[in-house]
């Protein structure tokens, strides 16, 4: 067993090459330990400036002329993310709408490109919105939804996905990093197998982007979507991104034919004739303030680079697993994530039969984790601002409130919004 | 002819009951006269505070706990607008996505509710995104698009719409106030005629909301969408709103089945089972910062009330028409809007064969109007902050640069983004 001391945690922080990035964020919480950066990333100092400037100088001062900055902002942020964070080429990534709307657009486009195939493959470990959207889309188009069983702790098996693939599959929609367990799917292998049967693949990168490398170009991924408010620190409800491989852009046609996809948009011509570029996947007027938040966050992620961020994420989650082994296993917790760090994103999850009551007690002890039904504590360890000392301190508080029964005074019943 | 003097304009301002609202906006442009509030409304002082507070205190300080404020924000803004601005009931209006995405959702829901009907009616005066979306949606569902001819200056004829209606019409999609001319369609009469043949009606309120009364409840309108960044001063790309009459909410089903529409959303259940309320028309994570901008703008509009705003809008556009009669008609301009003030929104439009070159010269003379192809100058007279003296001064500059040929030094060729 490793040397579980505060001094050891401090030593790890002292050796952390990304330690300086913490200063780039507004952190004035006192004793609070934030372990939910995988739901909402912290506020970059640069975002305060960018958004404040955009409000006062651009909206307030430039008024309608601000569009000279705003018209390309979504592509600008996409290009910031493309190379250093997502392994995509310039012009392959753009901000647009929400992840859910983007899933609908890209899945719709993919299904229209495979009109003779009748099956959409999803997996049961996928995020609920992905499942709802594909259920509805399949029903609307008279297609069959084929759901791959998954291990909710260990993640998606490539073999299980492969077994669901045949020449009748139009589209495969999967999460790269599972939202509950943090398990990483084998994106290159699954993409290759899907291509072997002629299917298109749409990856949900919500829990990947800014946490783990995403080999879009290396694996020749067709389509992807993701959000910018988690590890990319873009702000609450910041616009999502979408990726379409460059050769697919001119041939795919998405269903929501809005004017921001139109060729020579301001000619106000009568017939829909979309741009042959990533712009055809845009729809309506973009959320400018949210885009500036996303820009500030994306720049930090791009500057840090995904390889160092990934290395630190693995080190942090591994440290959490060490503390679990040392302190928590004997208190009724079990690991709900892969033990192999290379198979995890930047969050790690634990089961406990009293997870919800413990979660409330832990919050009152100054730690913000995430709860996931029915019995999971999900710990997001955002690499850009989380310290090893934070993990030590948070887990120290967790073992105390669990061991001394503090959690017993909290209700077992959950309120609706968690 | 009226007494066209600056003193007369000042007298009108002195008598304006809404004059005090100008102070609610950040206006430090010096000599600039802003006549494009129908494309992007000005910045409310309260928006600077709301957005700044949301960034620093909620995102930066409350972090994920900010959702206790954010989860209902879209409905909160909808309820602010519902009564005083839109004549809707609480729970019938919500912020969501962009106008274009909302058009797609509501039109999709309406078409699914009329599965045996084969025709969608639009009009040629409708905004391009409405036309593109309906073209694509009709094509996707194998329906016929029936386009009603319109007079692009005088607006939509109720008789022309009526002539396009029969028992095969599923949905009628029209703009209440035309984006070019500002002509107001007869919403109650058209809605009634559509209902007589059993069709649903979806009104685009982008140029109406915050400019003219919208008798949604009085006319028993089925569906409506609109944006918040024009007369509602919500900020660039602020989220759009959608309206669904309460009795239709539980029975309509929109195509983009995202998790924000799901009953008990955070239970993360596997099957899509939407809320029976306006929430089922939501899709993904809402753009929080944009919503706060929309909240600040909506509150001002609600406080002022739509009747005084409408009265001032008519007075301002009528004053512009007076100045046109006195100064511009003899310089080659012609009116491109209805002459009857009750048939106009809060913008008024003029033709001129050299409109584009004049537009550029006018901008350099410190006025921001809008140009619309091929030969229109569109003048937005946002009632909450535009003064009669602004109209006088702007038109005085316009007649000078037109009369003295200043415009001849500007290029006739347009750049792509106007």
UniProtKB/TrEMBL annotation, chains A, B:
The family this protein is said to belong to: Belongs to the kynureninase family.
Subunit structure: Homodimer.
Name of this protein: Kynureninase
Catalyses which reaction(s): 3-hydroxy-L-kynurenine + H2O = 3-hydroxyanthranilate + L-alanine + H(+); L-kynurenine + H2O = anthranilate + L-alanine + H(+)
Broad class of enzyme this protein falls into: hydrolase
Organism: Actinocatenispora rupis
EC number: 3.7.1.3
UniProt-recorded Gene Ontology molecular function terms: kynureninase activity; pyridoxal phosphate binding
Cofactor: pyridoxal 5'-phosphate
UniProt-listed HAMAP family: Kynureninase
Binding residues annotated for pyridoxal 5'-phosphate, in chain numbering: 99-100, 127-130, 204, 207, 229, 259, 285
A Gene Ontology biological process term: NAD+ biosynthetic process
Purpose: Catalyzes the cleavage of L-kynurenine (L-Kyn) and L-3-hydroxykynurenine (L-3OHKyn) into anthranilic acid (AA) and 3-hydroxyanthranilic acid (3-OHAA), respectively.
UniProt pathway annotation: Cofactor biosynthesis; NAD(+) biosynthesis; quinolinate from L-kynurenine: step 2/3; Amino-acid degradation; L-kynurenine degradation; L-alanine and anthranilate from L-kynurenine: step 1/1
InterPro entries: Kynureninase, PyrdxlP-dep_Trfase, PyrdxlP-dep_Trfase_major, PyrdxlP-dep_Trfase_small
Post-translational modification N6-(pyridoxal phosphate)lysine, affected residues: 230
């Amino acid at each position: 067993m490793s040397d579980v001391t505060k001094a050891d945690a401090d030593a790890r922080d002292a050796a952390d090459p990304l330690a300086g990035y913490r200063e780039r964020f507004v952190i004035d919480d006192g004793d609070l330990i934030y372990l939910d950066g995988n739901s909402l990333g912290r506020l970059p100092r640069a975002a305060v400036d960018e958004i404040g400037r955009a409000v006062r100088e651009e909206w307030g001062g430039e008024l309608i002329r601000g569009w000279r900055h705003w018209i390309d902002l979504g592509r600008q942020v996409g290009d910031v993310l493309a190379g250093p964070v997502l392994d995509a080429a310039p012009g392959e990534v753009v901000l647009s709408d929400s992840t859910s709307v983007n899933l609908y657009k890209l899945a719709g486009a993919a299904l229209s490109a495979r009109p003779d195939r009748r099956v959409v493959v999803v997996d049961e470990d996928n995020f609920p919105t992905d499942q709802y959207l594909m259920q509805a889309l399949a029903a609307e188009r008279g297609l069959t939804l084929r759901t791959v069983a998954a291990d909710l702790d260990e993640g998606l098996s490539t073999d299980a996905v492969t077994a669901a693939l045949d020449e009748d599959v139009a589209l495969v929609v999967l999460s790269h990093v599972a939202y509950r367990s943090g398990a990483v799917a084998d994106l290159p292998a699954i993409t290759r197998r899907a291509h072997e049967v002629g299917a298109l693949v749409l990856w949900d990168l919500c829990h990947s982007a800014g946490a783990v490398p995403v080999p879009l170009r290396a694996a020749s991924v067709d389509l992807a979507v993701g959000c910018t408010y988690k590890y990319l620190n873009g702000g609450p409800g910041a616009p999502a991104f979408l990726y379409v491989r460059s050769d697919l852009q001119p041939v795919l046609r998405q269903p929501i034919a809005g004017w921001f996809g139109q060729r020579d948009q301001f000619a106000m011509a009568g017939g829909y004739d979309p741009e042959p570029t990533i712009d055809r996947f845009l729809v309506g007027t973009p959320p400018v303030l949210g885009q500036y938040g996303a820009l500030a966050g994306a720049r930090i992620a791009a500057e840090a680079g995904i390889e160092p961020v990934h290395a630190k994420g693995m080190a942090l989650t591994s440290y959490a697993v060490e503390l679990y082994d040392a302190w928590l296993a004997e208190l009724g917790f079990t690991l709900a994530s892969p033990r192999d760090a290379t198979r995890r994103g930047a969050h790690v999850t634990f089961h406990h039969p009293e997870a919800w009551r413990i979660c409330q007690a832990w919050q009152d002890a100054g730690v913000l984790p995430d709860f996931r039904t029915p019995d999971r504590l999900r710990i997001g360890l955002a690499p850009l601002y989380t310290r090893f000392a934070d993990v030590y301190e948070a887990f120290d508080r967790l073992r105390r409130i669990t061991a001394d029964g503090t959690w017993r005074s909290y209700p077992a019943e959950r309120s609706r919004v968690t």
